[in-house]
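Good morning N.,

You mentioned wanting to compare the apo and holo forms, so I went ahead and generated the holo version with flavin-adenine dinucleotide. This is what I fed in:
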Amino acid sequence: MFRGGNGPLQVTELDWQHPLTDAFIQSARELGIPANTDYNGANQAGVSAAQRSIYRGRRCSPAHAYLHPALTAGNIDLRVNALATKILFDNGRAKGLCYHRGGRQFKVEATREIILCGGVFNTPQLLQLSGVGSSESLNDLAIPVVHHLPGVGQNLRDHCYIPVSARVRNIKSLNERSRGIPLCMEVLKYVFGRRGLLALQPSLCYVSWKSRPDLTDNDIQIAYAPASYDANRDMQLNDYPGVTCAPWQHVPKSKGVVQICSRDALDPPRIQPNYLQEPTDREVLLAAARLSRDILSARAFSDFFESEDQPGRDVNTDDEWYDYMRQSVGTGYHPVGTCRMAPVSDPTAVVDSELKVHGIQALRVVDASVMPNIPSGNTHASTLMIAEKGSDMILGKSPLPATEL
Ligand SMILES: Cc1cc2nc3c(=O)[nH]c(=O)nc-3n(C[C@H](O)[C@H](O)[C@H](O)COP(=O)(O)OP(=O)(O)OC[C@H]3O[C@@H](n4cnc5c(N)ncnc54)[C@H](O)[C@@H]3O)c2cc1C
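and this is what came out, ligand included:
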């Protein structure tokens, strides 16, 4: 009912057992969070070992699952290392595209339609560069307005998180396995059996739970890894064994914006996420962070727990936590929403229910930017579903019959 078994994208269960993941799951259960063997099934709530798109030790990416087989069929002309710089219009119809490749500019014409899939930051960037966006902002950059669509680049949503990490004892974490001789051993394991550290995803367990006991639905998520980053060295693992929880809110209300700052497609757009702008977002994240601390402090984890690393035991009151949030909040890498699907009457709308850009002919968006709101989970699967549905609509296929759940 909730998943098939013969689609192009392989999804597998975590096949790597470790005392630090077992202890994490037991600690969460000790706090009353039930174990859930399929959080992508009927019920998301609980603590689970992560499911992942890794098959036989290799990532099953959308390129691997969809693009490579399509290329083999021979009806795609793929141009890599090419940067789309501008959509060309004729009387409100998308007619072609300029792109930059190897220091040269090229132009292609579309016979049917143009489909944008540059992602949450670059799709609105390309629309704005091409004259589709807020007329006021376009006028500021002297870009001729093709269509005033103020929602382009608005409604940026993301799962933002703060790290809650601990130093552990009596055991090796991934920190030690990822350097020196142990890393050489992991490389050998991978080369000869596609197993071990190099065949793992970063988060090995997930918790979906409630920020308050009176809620009926879960509203927070915690990703867990038996590894920890050094707070003082960017993206470097600690020199001692550690574990990390990354708590976030399922559906934050805060909204950010993506806006070009120049007419040059090579200039990155300004990304203003406005994380935690809404007070409720701060409250819910605080509850998720406290739950992370409680899980790592539970009895089932006590054989391994040595001390809290981040934020550290001197952070206790709400204000101390909020101060820590301001210093350490970061992206959960799930941005969505900057070309929002909504009826044309909605001032934030960019695409209609068939993913077509409002007010323009022959132009669709098929990527995570069309999500009206952020999903209560990681965004990769939702994006693939948009792409599957989008391809059916482009091909003119009838929708599948509705299923009773
Ligand atoms: C570090 C990281 C970790 C993540 N981990 C997870 C996870 O564990 N689970 C999960 O569910 N989700 C995860 N995500 C989120 C997931 O990857 C995204 O939700 C998903 O990839 C969004 O797909 P998209 O097609 O909208 O955009 P993208 O995947 O970003 O694809 C956009 C593509 O367009 C190309 N492009 C952009 N602009 C141009 C241009 N002007 N010309 C030509 N090409 C262009 C880009 O190079 C890119 O290839 C993660 C994301 C990141 C960054």
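The pocket of flavin-adenine dinucleotide is lined by residues 82-84, 117-120, 122, 126, 333-334, 367-368, 378-381, 383 (CB under 6 Å).

Happy to go through it together on a call whenever suits you.

Best,
F.
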